[in-house]
Amino acid sequence: MSKRSAARAAAFACAVLAGMVVPVPAFAGGPRTLVVDDDRAQCPRASYSSIGSAVAAARDGDTVRVCGGRYPEDVVVDKRVDLVAEAPAAPAVDCTAETVDPSAALAVIEAEVTGVLVTASDARVDGFVVTSAENGIFTVQEGSGYRVTRNVIMDGTPFGIETESNGDRTTLVEGNCVRGTTFGGIVSQDGRLRNAVIRANFTVRNVYGIGAGSDQPRSDIAIAGNTSRADEVGIALSGSVGSSITGNNIDATGAAGFGAGIGVGGGNVGLEVSRNTLTGRAPIYFSRAVLGDLGPVDQRINVGVLVARNLVHDNPSAGITTASLLPGELGNITRSLYYRNTTIDNLATGLFVGPGNDGNVLIGNTSNNNARGIFLNGAVGTVVLANTMTGNTDADARDALPGENTWIANRCVKEDNPGTLCALPAGPSPTSDVSSGTSSSASAGTAGRGSTAVVPRRPAVDQRGWPCLRVPVWDVDPIDGGAWVWITVVAPDAPAGTFCGS
Q: How far is it, in rounded angstroms, from Cα 191 to Cα 12?
């Protein structure tokens, strides 16, 4: 939703509220509960028949409880209130069903422009069905601490939940069902987003399930434990600092378009992509064009990304790929670590790194039964250490520039350059864990003889010196294993021309 649309929504709601004369009962302090029922069938003693009138009468700290019914109105929440449906919608519906017909017990907001526009920090919107709006629910960047939970945003809405926050307090978007939007399910397009948790949501048949793009500042976004079904792009992110995409389950079977399970655009610093499961036209795709914005942030390279312990399987394309979507597109990722990912039964390459994506490290990955296992197609300065590649139909290991990269202790059979890429017979590889730093193999000092390096927990990005950021990157040593080292980079939202040293 554009800022102009938000302004229209606010103006519309203010005009409606200005025409109301709402009696407010005398009250002696403390939070109150204001009950709303459109026809007083579910809640006969309700004091209000519209949501807007109850919010107008509410004070900070009050709860507005809305009973089942149809509410043909745009709602502006401009006070620190809990706007709560009597029967929460998301737990009551099957978000993946072909159609959803809300029952009479649910509170349905049939909006004209914006279903719920939230302008007050720490306000809560819980349990509604929102239909026929340009935006289902919109939180603005001037506030923070919003809680958007257990709502259902129905088919046809261009944007489901537009999430913005200035980051002073944590914003939570949790347990929502967003389905059939014509653009984005849970998105951050028009404003900044900082210090937000997007967790345990269902997104179904959207263009983007969850997406944060455009040239707006964003940092410390945790996208965790969400379920995506048949979204064209399950999760997409660009221009973030210290964010994470973890533990999501994505199945893109039946999605339109080229398909990407997790699409990483440009300009991310210290991003973690870990422990996700992806299948059915859902690769992890690194490309600056993945969000289509191509502004200054998107054109910057990703630095210090950790891609770890993901399972990508049964895709009619690649598993994890770093490539170009546009002719002449530059590299997308550098000084980053691909660690202990599993890519199996994909019709193209299990782990692909294209030209311009230089200086990365691949440790302990398993890439079996794909067309190709690991393929470096023009990347240079890459270290490929202790990976296992078996049963790939074309090649287990392929490198277009083998003299420009370092292959050590990899277990595989079929390679383009016999004796240079596959140093050990195929078989199970030692295991280690990036989150705990523990290993069932020998010590990190034996890495050159086939053990995976022990990778301890990665430190967080140091943002205190913004716009100059200190980001940890893995510096591999084939003898001693390696260590996290700090480099200084420019924040993606820094002013043009900012210099932070070489």
A: 21
